[in-house]
UniProtKB/TrEMBL annotation:
<dbReference type="GO" id="GO:0015888">
    <property type="term" value="P:thiamine transport"/>
</dbReference>
<dbReference type="GO" id="GO:0030975">
    <property type="term" value="F:thiamine binding"/>
</dbReference>
<dbReference type="InterPro" id="IPR006059">
    <property type="entry name" value="SBP"/>
</dbReference>
<dbReference type="InterPro" id="IPR006311">
    <property type="entry name" value="TAT_signal"/>
</dbReference>
<dbReference type="GO" id="GO:0030288">
    <property type="term" value="C:outer membrane-bounded periplasmic space"/>
</dbReference>
<feature type="signal peptide">
    <location>
        <begin position="1"/>
        <end position="29"/>
    </location>
</feature>
<dbReference type="GO" id="GO:0030976">
    <property type="term" value="F:thiamine pyrophosphate binding"/>
</dbReference>
<keyword id="KW-0732">Signal</keyword>
<protein>
    <submittedName>
        <fullName>Extracellular solute-binding protein</fullName>
    </submittedName>
</protein>
<dbReference type="Pfam" id="PF13416">
    <property type="entry name" value="SBP_bac_8"/>
</dbReference>
Length: 344
């Protein structure tokens, strides 16, 4: 059958083509959505304000966000049994290993990311891609000490220990910091016993003990003047007018990545890749690095902020990283022991 095209149909078609030429974004109007798990708080706020808008402008995709901490993402995905409520995970190293070991992430296809060319070699693997770097070291109030600390062992001696804010293994930055403290006293990634030995000695002297989430506020209030944390927290406090500086320990800056992964059984895989590619794009990474979010980029095309502890993304390869397949089996015991010993 060869239907006749009427003059009205021809004019309607021409009008539609003219509209698309004048307003090219209309071509994306029916591209659907992607659903991502996202960390509550600053991550959700940043992604709602920057990433979601960029994804809509570039691809016409609506970003739906489910605010979930990493352990909750994994719990939900396991319970879903291959029918997850979100298309992408966002995870720190420990939960990332758990998600992979539990078969919750799909094989990652780097060829679907235009931005992959701007990442350092080896960053992308078969499981996912980093979207933000974390840099961990020592933060202190420069007005309270004549000289800054230079290494992890310094935190256990005066004048620093009596102004130390102490927190445990609940977070990634807390865990890796304590591992490096243990190493300063002869420990290893598997053996943090030297830290616990020193902990008993200093407990009567530390300024405060708190949860990781409370430590920035305790520092801002002056209840402690030295803590172990990441550059994102330092930037946030400095933007509030707090006197704070970041120290690179003599043993080296710790780094780890927050990564994204395609959930196995994801419903909107194509849109999920476009979402991740948008996160990794140079303009978005540049915006996320600025106040008030201070998220360290992984895109090598980004002009790095002066207060980050590197001048080129290639320097990450020389920073201290940890093997979470070794840490994960021990971490629950470390958390329980730390909580017990500081409470006794």
């Amino acid at each position: 059958m060869n239907p006749q095209i009427t003059r009205r149909q021809l004019l309607a078609g021409a009008g539609a083509m003219s509209a698309l030429a004048m307003f090219p974004k209309l071509a994306f109007a029916q591209q659907g959505s992607a659903t991502t798990a996202i960390y509550p708080g600053a991550w959700e706020e940043a992604y709602r304000g920057i990433v979601a808008e960029a994804l809509r402008e570039t691809h016409g995709i609506d970003l739906q966000m489910q605010p979930l901490f990493a352990v909750d993402q994994i719990a939900q995905a396991r319970a879903a049994r291959g029918n997850p409520s979100f298309d992408t995970f966002v995870l720190d190293p420990g939960p990332r290993v758990m998600a992979i070991e539990n078969g919750l992430v799909d094989i990652f296809d780097a060829s679907r990311l235009e931005s992959s060319a701007h990442l350092e070699p080896g960053m992308i693997d078969e499981h996912g891609v980093p979207v933000a770097a974390q840099f961990v070291g020592i933060a202190y109030n420069p007005n309270r000490f004549d000289t800054p600390p230079t290494d992890w062992a310094d935190l256990f001696e005066e004048p620093y220990v009596s102004r130390l804010g102490l927190t445990g293994f609940q977070t990634t930055f807390g865990t890796v910091s304590i591992i490096e403290m243990a190493k300063a006293f002869g420990g290893t990634e598997e053996n943090v016993e030297p830290f616990f030995k020193e902990l008993q000695r200093i407990l009567p002297h530390v300024a405060t003990i708190g949860t990781p989430a409370s430590m920035p506020s305790l520092f801002q209030q002056g209840q402690c003047d030295i803590m172990y944390t990441n550059t994102q927290t330092v930037g946030t406090l400095r933007a509030r007018g707090v006197d704070i500086e970041f120290v690179r320990p003599s043993s080296g800056v710790i780094t780890f990545f927050t990564t994204m992964h395609i959930a196995r059984g994801a419903h909107e895989v194509a849109n999920a890749y476009k979402y991740i590619d948008t996160v990794l794009s140079t303009p978005v990474q540049q915006q996320l690095m600025q106040a008030p979010y201070f998220m360290a980029p992984v895109n090598s095309e980004v002009t790095l902020a002066d207060d980050l502890p590197l001048s080129d993304m290639s320097e990450i390869a020389d920073m201290i990283q940890h093997d979470w397949s070794v840490i994960n089996p021990r971490r629950a015991e470390w958390i329980e022991r730390f909580n017990r010993e500081v409470a006794s």
